[in-house]
């Protein structure tokens, strides 16, 4: 499954690494790719293992808002 989440507050490479790293630590997430220009992250995941809400929480724990 793939979804794209709109993330507010990402402005630099550190932001990109922080969001991607938090998502990739979740069981069930196989890929996460931030697009800073678009302000979103594309996530490939197994919906039987991880929920979109869990992904949003992981991003918010890094200090970013998910729209």
Automatic annotation (TrEMBL):
Where does this protein chiefly localize? cytoplasm
State its location(s).
Answer: Cytoplasm
Q: What CDD domains has UniProt attached to this entry?
A: HMA
Which keywords does the record carry? Answer: Chaperone, Copper, Cytoplasm, Metal-binding
Every copy of the HMA domain together lies at: 1-67
Protein name per its UniProtKB record: Copper chaperone CopZ
